[in-house]
Design a protein that fits this description.
This protein is an alpha+beta fold. The protein is built from 6 helices and 7 strands; from the N terminus they run H-E-E-H-E-E-E-E-H-E-H-H-H. It is flat and about 105 Å long.
Length: about 240
């Protein structure tokens, strides 16, 4: 009797009809990007740089000091993407030798789809001479002979750019390979990533509630820190070497 009563009560609660909506095929994707305004150049690959800069026949190749100021601090000019697409940006200072240019050129040429993509350099060819003395020589005798040429790079400098009718997921792999093989810290970026990082940095500065920032500590000589800091720490407040 109890079981019959339970069945009758469940029957009252059971709906007369069940409506099933099939939603497996209903999906909304964003529209694809429009690349009609992009024109592929005649030479989509990176051009080869010379190992030694060309001087006039009547001029002896000049020697130069180290000039570390060419690698210190932030890059103020070439720190934006011209193509507004993808590239490799340096996170620290360093020097690019001819071997690094060749490495980047070969990696990009191997992975580049020339029908839809192209790449451009954003740095100068090797121009700064680096001298070196032969092994086993005694001290003195003047400055050594020119061994090779390099290109100094500052933090924030755009090394190369990749553009065309492609998305970031297609170009990220080859840009990451180049960034990992450079002699300084670098990373692959897109225009959206750079804009997002800039907005986050601005938001952190505006919403910072801690008054004891590195800039405040250095400017007020807290803890007598001036005797342990370099002139570049006073200029960039510990952000760059």
């Amino acid at each position: 009797m109890l079981i019959r009563t339970i069945k009758q009560s469940l029957g009252f609660l059971r709906p007369e009809c069940i409506q099933v909506t099939c939603n497996a095929g209903i999906k909304y994707f964003p529209p694809p990007k429009n690349y009609d305004h992009i024109e592929i150049p005649e030479r989509p690959r990176l051009r080869m740089f010379e190992k030694v800069p060309q001087y006039p026949s009547n001029l002896k190749p000049p020697k130069m000091q180290k000039r570390l100021r060419y690698m210190r601090g932030p890059e103020l000019l070439h720190n934006k993407l011209q193509l507004k697409q993808y590239g490799v940006v340096a996170l620290g200072g360093g020097r690019l030798a001819h071997e690094h240019f060749e490495m980047a050129r070969l990696v990009i040429a191997r992975h580049l789809d020339m029908k839809r993509m192209f790449a451009i350099w954003r740095v100068d060819p090797p121009w700064q001479p680096v001298t070196k003395k032969g092994q086993g020589q005694r001290m003195g005798g003047g400055k050594g002979a020119i061994d090779h040429y390099v290109t100094p790079i500052k933090a924030g400098r755009i090394i190369l750019e990749v553009g065309g009718k492609c998305e970031y997921a297609e170009a990220r792999h080859m840009l990451k390979i180049v960034a990992e093989r450079l002699p300084f810290k670098a990373k692959a970026v897109s225009q959206e990533i750079m804009e997002k990082e800039e907005q986050e940095e601005k938001w952190k500065e505006e919403n910072n509630k801690n008054p004891y920032t590195m800039k405040y500590i250095i400017q007020n000589n807290m803890g007598g820190c001036h005797k342990m800091l370099s002139p570049f720490d006073h200029k960039w407040h510990g952000k760059y070497l």
